[in-house]
Amino acid sequence: MSAKVPTIRLNDGNLCPVVGFGTYETKKADILTAIEAGYRHFDGADFYGNEQEVGAALREAIAAGKVRREELFVVSKVWPNWTGKGRPTLSVKRTLKNLGLDYVDLLLIHWPTPFKQVDDDYHPGAADGQVLFDESIELYDIWREFEDIKSAGLTKSIGVSNFNSQQIQELIDNSKTVPAVLQVESHPYFNNDRLRRWCQEKGVRMTAYSPLASTGPNLNQSLPKPIDLPLFKELANKYGVSAAAIIFRWQTQRGVIVIPKSSTKERIQSNINIFHFVLTADELLAIDGIDNNYRCHPWNHWGISKHKRYPFGIPF
Length: 316
Ligand SMILES: NC(=O)c1ccc[n+]([C@@H]2O[C@H](COP(=O)([O-])OP(=O)(O)OC[C@H]3O[C@@H](n4cnc5c(N)ncnc54)[C@H](OP(=O)(O)O)[C@@H]3O)[C@@H](O)[C@H]2O)c1
Description:
Elements: E1 7-9, E2 15-17, E3 21-22, H1 28-37, E4 41-43, H2 51-63, E5 73-78, H3 87-99, E6 104-109, H4 139-151, E7 155-161, H5 165-173, E8 181-185, H6 193-202, E9 205-209, H7 230-239, H8 243-253, E10 257-258, H9 265-270, H10 281-288
Parallel strand pairs: 3-4, 4-5, 5-6, 6-7, 7-8, 8-9, 9-10
Antiparallel strand pairs: 1-2
Helix pairs in contact: 1-2, 2-3, 7-8
The structure holds NADP nicotinamide-adenine-dinucleotide phosphate (NAP).
Residues 22-24, 43, 161-162, 183, 209-212, 214-215, 227, 242, 244, 259-264, 267, 270-271, 297 line the site of NADP nicotinamide-adenine-dinucleotide phosphate.
């Protein structure tokens, strides 16, 4: 059975399905399963190295008449070694070639920490223990090039990922475009609520990555997975859904887009079937209360936290 996912309107007028499918390390068969299940929003990135495979699956589904291109919401991201002048344009053109598409629906600056601008190494210098930076690159210059990429029709919407509020404000102050989306880590242990509320005031829509807190370099084995917490088990029993579905419903009810990833058919299907029940205000508050400021993706390996634009050194 295929689920129908609601959309929300971004600040530029474009529509975005509120549940998407994460494609990090995802295979073609999983994308095809996701399309059958009703996903139309696919979150990818040049860095994931599988845009050819993702694109092949999307084009196969279009050719088979399962979905039309206009129904899809395809996301890609530009990695920090592709942020110098002219390079985001080269990056997105390569992405489009890999996907086999004429445009993406949303293009994000993946991280606000420009690296040394080399073509063949996504973590230049990491082998010696310290990623090499290019701190001369201004975030608003990357952003102005993103505006040009949008004007050229290579993407419908533009946004950022892993930026803090000050960095987003810097873009707003130095350009004509408020980012349509901020994609950041958000889950019950790290709900990022102050940033969510700040974004809401500015008209920036938040997307939650790692929504189950089950991936990332900082995975703390001493914390139970959120889906194993008694509150989620109790609510899952009450509504007859999985604990993960409760988490995704909580996010969508607080206005946040979610992009879970799974390689298990049943989970791919159940993760999107979350719109037949509504959590109560008290239940939403109880889930908000689980937050313990625990970040799975602190972005502090290979000396990256020494970058002058390291985003996580301020409260939000
Ligand atoms: N912008 C960024 O910097 C950034 C960073 C990280 C991630 N992302 C994006 O966010 C997407 C999702 O993030 P993520 O993969 O880190 O985290 P996630 O979706 O929170 O976790 C994925 C893991 O959860 C498991 N899972 C999925 N559904 C489940 C369910 N219903 N019950 C139990 N376990 C379930 C999956 O296992 P099975 O496969 O075995 O089902 C997989 O191991 C990525 O694919 C990527 O597109 C973006």
